[in-house]
Protein 1
Amino acid sequence: MKKTLIVLMLVLSLVMPLAVTQAQGPGEGGPVVEGNFSGSVNIGSFNPLRSNDTAAGRIADDLLFPDVIGASPFTQYYARVGEEGVYGGLATDWTVSEDGLTYTVTLRQDAVWSDGTPITALDVKFSFEAIASGAADTPLTGYINYVEDGNPTGISEVTIIDDYTVEFKFETAACTALGLIGYDVAPAHVFGYDGSPEFDFSIMVDHPMDTDPEVVFGPFEVARFASGEAIGLSPVESWPEGVVIPSGYVYRDVPDQTVEVEQFLAGELNFMDGPSVARRDDLRADANTVVADFPGNAWDFMAFNLADPDNPQPAVDENGDPIDQGHHPIFGDVRVRRALQYAVDVEGILEAAVFGEGTQMAANTIPTSWAADPNLAPIPYDPVKAGEMLDEAGWPLGDNGVRTCQGCMYAEEGTPFAFELITNQGNTRREAIGVIIQDQLYELGIDVDFQAIDFQTLIDTTYGAQTFDAFILGWREGFPSDPDQLQLFSTSSDDPANQGSNASSYNNPEMIDLMIKANTVPGCDPQARAEIYYEIQKMMQEDPPYIWLFAQNLMYAARVEVEGFAAEPNLPLWNVHAWQIAQ
Amino acid sequence: MRQYIFRRLLQAIPTLFGITILSYAIVVAAPGNPVATLAFGPRTTQAQKVQLAEQLGINDPVYKQYIRWLVGNDWQSFRTLDRRGNPVRDADGNIEYENGTQRGILRGDFGTSFVSKKPAMDVLVGKIPATLELGGLALLFGLGLGLPIGVLAAVWRGGWFDNITRVMAVVFNAVPVFWLGLLLLLIFGSQLGWLPMGGRYPTNYFITGEVTVRERVEHLILPVAVLSTGYVAVFSRLMRASTLDVLSQDYIRTAQAKGLRGRQVYFVHAARNAMIPIATILGPAIPGLIGGALITETIFSWPGVARTAFTAVLTQDYPVIMASVILVSLATIIGYLLSDILYALIDPRIRLS
Amino acid sequence: MTILEPTAVDQNPLANVVDLSNEETFGKSLFALALGRLRRDYLTLFALTVLLILIILSLLAPVISDVLDVSYRRIGLDNTFQKIGIQKHFLGTDDVGRDQFVRLLYGGRVSLGIAVSAALLSLVIGTSLGVIAGFYQGGRFRFVDDVMMWLIITLNSIPTFFLLLVITAMLSPSVGTLILILAFLSWTGTMRLVRGETLSQRGREYIVAASAIGASPLRIMFLHILPNIFSIIVVNLASDIGVLILVEAALSYLNLGVRPPTPSWGNMLTNAQTFFTKGVHLVICPGSLIVITVLCLFLVGDGVRDAFDPQAAKKVA
């Protein structure tokens, strides 16, 4: 995803006069060196259609291959080639049909793969067919499946109108459509694709493109890949967006965030994406470091199980008729869930778990989204009120200091207020959140058994079996982010057999109607959509499936020798080809 | 000698067999299964999972799966599935079958890594040079430092050198490896800035492919130091005991009585014979090398076999996990064998019968 | 630091123990002699004292936490990263304001508890199997011995720490299961020792006599043979416990050890490394406790071995 426009150099010359005055030539700038602590640098595949791990996201997606539609670092939304700073796209324009079912995308005509072959509509069609075929062994298939696989918002047909025009047909009109179109594009000619419907996409499996991609479109190309060590990229000679000044891009393995920061401070790394929260103050204070802070788009929550944990059921049976979910003895009662939000000191948690490097969530929409209601305040920490609410809900404090059911809604009389809270092991942030919630609820006479367990078991117990009481986990919004969350809270996601995302069995028909309405507003006008999302957020505060916690902030850091570093949220590398690194 | 080696190799067969059972048992006992791992994703349907389970044959009895893993499934037939997972039918409407493709580990087929999609054994074999480089140097360093320390401690028995080295040996064995590693990294890498903080090559190598010997050595110093502390401790103490043993032998006394100089006696006559018992622990040292190497490789981002295997464990990459157990065990068995042969070679009193 | 492989020695560490005909030792039991020597070994006594203090403190953790009026699990969000010696927090507080001193005591219960239980369990397994295998070696039931030796050689052919990682990562065990796994992976050394020693005891007159008067094999194994080989079993116990403490710490470093919020020295150390710039005492305290404890265990282990085997002591001391 590396696209920038011809105007980019012009823009740069305005924004960063230094970049121009030094007039360094190609590859004279020293390499960008980034650390990766997400496990060994073990890219699943360089083919952007075949993998979506962290390394693939940075290298294949960001630096080696284009997307159909790019994004702007400044508007943080899809943007046309030619707009200021646009990053990673091929589309110079797109239009939507009256009924919202057909998107016609026009591609730029000046883009060529590194072997000289022009990038055309055939490449775009190839990329979608490859993912949709299911034969290319790709983790992306689930995201853009064709309608026949039961995804009502999927793309039903991709048609080549001419070399630089593609038409996408949808079965249902949805404002999230652009997100489905915006995927990566891989070179069709490398695989011999001719547009034939009989084409066998399994040729992509074990293709040299996985390990040694010779045909790319970005400011860099692969120089050396050593799994478990680093991926080294070298600059391309003729990048149409301008001279590529860095002498390379090296994505190095680091064992953890602690060592990553030390290597950065020592100058072994010169760029970091998301440094350890414990060290961010040090980095801000460090004279040799330039940082860029932004509110983030990954948010943590504590999910309740609303349904009977001893009898987990999907929301609907095969005929689409609702199945009785039963009630969780404690959390089945909305008054209890509401009370617990008052009982948890989210600001205190923010300070302790991420050293204040986060933003509190008022409800289900990240604070930076255009759909977040600016007038909706988070529920304040008020343990006294929480206690009163629990008393009212039939959970008064007993003599031994523990709340028990006395006239509560779903539990047997005399049941103590006790539940299990789980999260994934090895994540110090979530472990701290759990310990604090445990302690704050203990204050209120609630006995929380908090355990960190391994990730796979956590997923099996929660999304898989739905036999849990409550768990702490997080979601990461895609980029560009859309406020639609049908995937998280819809009835069809309440499906233990398929590990559906709605593990809480939160089945709120009114909310689902609103979400569908917001996603199908004619013309998809953000203001009109936002009004509906505001309503949803109020609803999510009054009838919460989760305790809303916070979104951790983003931080990008570069060494002071990196001139031209101008990170924007989610697109820290939008101008990486112009970075000048003094050696 | 050839006969001896042959017999030892024969003896290794039941051992290897036991290892295959054990490694398979671990995977079977683990919660979750390959389908959960392979099909993890928000929109994987139940039908896709059932299909995957069928292809992997994980609904068969465990013993069948084990045998298939051992000898392959290319003698079996499976339904041919089309892109959508439905059985393919021929013109007459009969379901088409195709032969399995797995050849089994006995014929060198360890399956394909779930993560990198490469043959599982290839994933590991590519890491052997890095592990040999680190482990070999650590072992050499351990011997090179440990043996002379042991001899000197024996010679100056009860003196300050003996006492200090003895205390050091115990202390170094009591420090957690990962703590020692981080400490050295923070001191020499971060505070003093003398040495790189991890990796096997400098940054530029990954762009230009150029690396100097000096850079290679700099990257080796810290990991080798951490990995070899244990060996120095163990070898020095063993060598000390062994040397003391030899020094009390008659021939040494004879040599001394005949007026040979101290240094010559100690290092030519005594040390040479004292080294014989050391050969016996070289074999057992190899499994220790791999265990200790995991922590060292992790702290210093060293791209070796142990860390690759560990990453596979964390990502539930079953084929690589099982291949790594087999590979590492083979290395251990060979290590024991070499050590026994070495022992036989350097000690003329041992007869191979 | 060849973790978990401390007893590469296959032969009896007491091979040249006390010949009972020796005049100096005549008439005294092996244990009495060893105790006598231990009493003069001040380094070992010192290490033993330190260990005892640590154990008693850990056992008294609930009492101490009551007396100090601090809890090992109560947090204090306005009270995080307190330095050593502030108010009632002897060793300061951690990232969520929990008292470090009391948590270390509770962590000691967990770390020591795991190591001691696993070492004892492995001792029981190794000894029982060793006696049985040794007893039946070569006889009518030789397959018992053959099967066990095969099992041992197989287990020893997989690097133990590596196997441990695979198993803990796959099973993600609770504390109880972790003890079982550690024991299951560390009994082979003891077993070999005991087997060898049983073999040599088997031919002695008192055994032959016992079977002649019709004592059952079980009786012979556990009433006659076992007491006679007991000393060689306990000699390695202390250093084995030390190694197991290191193993628990290493597992915690890899996020496979005792799971938070249950404190162990290993996971406290690992957790604190994330914020070492905010509170270096949170790294130093658990780290030093591990080193001190393991060091003392190794010293005691050496001391005990020397006490039982004075000839070896002359060489090593």
Protein 2
Amino acid sequence: MAIHEDVLVIGGGIAGTTAALAAAETGAQVRLVTHKKSTLRQASGLIDVLGYAPDVDGPVSDPFAAIESLPEGHPYQLLGETAIRGGLTVFDEAVGEAYEGSHTDTNALLTTSGGAIKPTSRYPTSTAAGLVSDDRAMLIVGFRSLTDFDGELVADHLAAAGVPFSVDGVEIEVPGSYRADSRVTRIANALDLNKDLDYEGRSLPAREAFAEVIKPHLGDADRVGLPAVLGDDHADAVRADLERHLGAAVFELPMGPPSYPGLRLEDILFDALDEAGVRLSDGNPAVGYEADGDAIDAVIVDQMNKEVPYSAEQVVLATGGLVGKGIDSDREGVREPVFDCHVPHPDDRYDWFVDDAFGEHPFAKFGVQIDEACKPLDADGVPEFSNLRAAGGVVGGVDRTAEKSKSGVSLATGYAAGTAAGEAI
Amino acid sequence: MTDTPHVLVIGGGSTGCGITRDLAMRGFEVTLVEKGNLTHGTTGRMHGLLHSGGRYAVSDQASATECIEENRVLRDIASHCVEMTGGLFVQRPEDDDEYFQKKLEGCRECGIPAEVLSAEEAREMEPYLATDIKRAIKVPDGAVDPFRLCVANAASAQEHGARIETHAEVIDVLVEDDQVVGIEVKHDSGPGKREHKTPGTTEKIYADYVVSATGAWAGQIGEMAGVDVEVRPSKGVMTIMNTRQVDTVVNRCKPKGDADIVVPHETTCILGTTDIEVEDPEDYPEEQWEVDHMIDTLSELVPMLKDARTIRSFWGVRPLYEPPGTGTDDPTDITRDFFLLDHEERDGLSGMTSIVGGKFTTYRMMAEKITDHVCEQFGIDAECRTADEPLPGSEDFSVLRDYMDEFGLRSPIGRRSVQRLGSRADEVLKTGEPNPVVCECEAVTRAEIQDAIEQSGSDLNAVRIRTRASMGNCQGAFCCQRMAHELYPKYDEETAYSAFDELFQERWKGERHALWGQQLSQAMLKYSLHSTTMNADHDAVRTGDAIDFTAFDGGTDAASKSGATGAAATDGGVSSPGTNGGDR
Amino acid sequence: MSDAESPSDFDTTAQSFEPVQVFPNNEDMDLRPGADNCYKCTACDTSCPVAEVDEDFPGPKFQGPEQWRLKRKEDQAVDDSIMSCSNCMRCDNACPSSVPLSQMHNTARGEYVSEEMNKLSQEYIRNRILANYRFFAKIGSKVPRLSSAIMGNRLVREINERILGLPAEREFPAFATETFREWWSNRGGPKVRSEDKRVAYFHGCYSNFNTPEVGKAMVRVFESFGYEVVVPKQGCSGTPMFANGMLDDAKREAGITVENFSGLIDEGYDVIASCTSCSMSLKQEYPELFSMDGIEDLSAHTYEAMEYLRINEDLHSAIEDASVEEQAYAYHAPCHARNQGLDRQAVELFRDLDGVIIEDVGDSCSGISGTYGWKKEKYENSMKIGEEMFEHMEHATGDVGMTECPTCSMQMEHGTGYDIKHPLQLLEEAVVE
């Protein structure tokens, strides 16, 4: 067959890229097939391993110590600390200096765009000066036209949380002339390219102009937080220039979509795939498979109404959860659409949710059930296929949203599935 | 008795607001009390159909005639709340020919313009109708926004001097010597606009006359006054589609039945409904089969509904009433007519009248009749003007055609804003400030949100019903937060967060009923955005947890940055004097 | 099969153009249900190269699902910003929920142009001319040297800018002295006949009039793998017409394509294009925008040239022992190739080819996007969008560019001065004796 690899990974999010990198590490020839842009663009870019656990009050400070309190069947319980550490190592090597947090097992606390404090394990360097356990005085800056974020409100909320530093907030007019409904991509682009902007009758490079607007509000602040739209390809330079002009540290507060930290991470991970010699096919969905007995021969990719077989010895399913469309549902039930793996769920649709918006929603746990080898199991607990493994959001049984373990589960399962797939060659 | 009699109206639904406006326009001093937001009860939970009367043309011609009359009135006085979509009674091959004929004749007898369309003609109007339909009758049904209609009535009443108290629940009806002399209410957050954190108070409000326009809750008010009002609340489900599959009201042309109407409503379609008697208008089961029944049955008329996205479902409780002793078993057989119960005549309790039954479309006529009745009590001879004077927002038609580019908005956004605001568009949108879009699904801008906050205080659900913000396909995933931001700094941090939490939970209540397919994915994204990205579910401020900041990563070069991070952080809880959030 | 006749000719006066009913019934035009898929994640907005540089363009989410969802039946106006969409279709590729974004944009643009645009305006006439490039190319190529000389003249370019709104900065592509179809005809058609390996070549306008070497490479490569190649009568794929909201023109051309290729599909031919916008059009836009007999079938049998070989031949083995002239290439994947999932195939293959260094210059848009960069008022934005690609090309080792798309190649040449090749030309060098 024309298109053939040792390991085929389906899905281009954190789990898929980790699995591909881990498999490539074993020497296998790997192809990663991805359909649309991954949910990284909607995520904050923070790498949460475990933020809250059953026996711990408040945020978990050492995620590894809290693993044992997790329920049976939790991916961390199944795969163990080795997988989490393995996944983190793959991640740390891929991202290099773009992230911090690898110096300690202890979680870091950062401020979210909603003003709440959140524990996380790895954080973009661009957010590092915003650590809440740091006592330097803080100024939080919002843009008046950016309705998603209010710098003053976030500052007040942080103060209400009793943080160990003084914090002030300000809403500024973005320099330059923008329409009221300008996309944030415009701001990011202006900063990225440092194009000249009109500012009080003068023409100033964008970064300097932003600094000029912020400066009068700086007060005693040693660090300045802004919504995470500070550039795309040249984010480091944007921050460095802002810091130079302001004479204070500058950090980003991760936002919801569109997430620049997520976009940047996506770029970094795909560069790492290239570097590792992983072949990439993106833009078309995996829609089915050809199997011989319990072994998958090929995954069928729909190339615009044409079913093209991509054959491989080992397959990793990392298509994501309900948002990434790795798990699909209708009024009748919940399913995994590529291999039709068993997805445990209550028969009655009204048992899929609870009445509190932030309650323990069964739907948040929808996904395939895996064994210690990451193989998805059928209703009887038997692996669906001998050469299929699952990783990331498509794996169920855990509410990683409430737990703040989304990226950690992706890294651990991606690492375990990718390594096992590569070693099986 | 003072010169101007004081009338107290209980219930901020369409009837109560209509009565308040009418009374105020006829010179009464009026106070309206409502336990929730305006439209909190049945009015906010209807399908938004402006009846042509066609639905009653066979079974209840008196109602049908009232409907077509009021339909014409509302088109005039509430043009910015009404969309004249037109309606179709669609006959499928298995539906009775004889009934179709009766419907057509009934319409004509009641003065409802009715025209028979062939299947092709009907499908040309509505391409998504089933290919095998037989024919249809075209009638002047329309769509009406009950929220804005109520708000406009209340606003007009206020202009005429009425006092409107929302979030003021009646806890007692004050009776002295067989006469109702007033009521006692509990203000959720003090009198006036609702503002979070304002402590609750109670107030005795005395009046010369009390009107209970509490619909399905009339029995409860009656009980406080010591009289029996036998309402028979009947629930009905309504399922909201994400888009408009039809732009015309589509009715099934057959005798009474469940799941027989699709109403295009703003950006959505509403499928309805069921008719099941319940004990308590506030506590009844909301069931899966009801939602499924809407989709499955109505897709016989509009097949694409089967796989289309629904964004939420809600239930309303009809305030059905029948005189004691009628004894109808099936709630669908109970009359839709309204009853004016003068408790003096009926129960020997003077000073109070209840109004029960009736339909949204004829709210104004009901209000007129009860206002006439109140006038009689006081021997006042004042003419009703509510059928002639346009409601605020509907004064000037021309504005609806002149919106293009005027407000610096993209044309679909400007168009939607003006469709909602009517003649108030200028006043609301021309703020001179940058006006970003806050709710993208429904095209609601900052100016419109600010206008609603000005009207209703820190209650974001009240903002929602005025603007439609958070009522689109993301169900507030992105804009609940933005709306809360708009409260600040007018309201403080704690208020903004409480108001957010309240709106977020309210949105979830209806969205729960749509959790499969696209809306389940949407809900998961919403959950992830608020829990994973923003950590709203574990926010230490809201949970009240204290965090030991020293137990967490202080950064790689913390020492050089701040001396000793750990040590300096132990005092926790230092907040900047420059902020007004305060310690908690 | 070597019929070089134009199947239909274009009338330059807009008024005398006979409109074709694009939407046979209302149902096809109502894309509101497509908004059901959108969950507002903004992946499309972050992928839009125009929204990043053009203040007036509100991005694909607004232009697509939001605008459609806000529509009522009686509402007419489409926001005029739709004309700033370059139809790069990157939003399609971004959307995790498969919202039919480009379909919504194409349809809204068609509606805007037919309902709201002044048909006598310079913009309309210029767009009409750009959209119907083939018509003018056909005339120009009758006297190729003269046409190229005239269009290359600075004065002529300035007049074009003033009168037609074409940017004077851009140089018109030169016409080939022998069109591909002339070559094909002179060659006597196919050299290989086969019962089971047969393809019909959709060469498009550019390979025919401007770069016949790409078409020739396609024929020789496919024949070297044992395929029978035929070259049916054909018009324009419709791509520039979609991008300008000229849906009537596009439908006319689609009709010609379907008419001339459908019969061949029944005889076992697959349809191959060398231009990724042409293959995009046949695969996706045709069935999305038009309903005609055979259009779905055409879509399901259309492939980009290298896509087809990758699926059906072992290309890696085929180039294993090949040797080509040592050269480093700076490869740019066209947006429309990206959309078909083909953005990696050239790099993946050629990095295993001895003597070749190939670097991907990143995932940005070249900025020309067909006719977009050919509009005076868009020229500046087009160059802003292209800046990232130019920069990466200059940093790359190679001093020859490579891409599948003719207009991307114009932009690459315009921005860097490099020669630009089509991957088929390198493949020809590697595998054709």
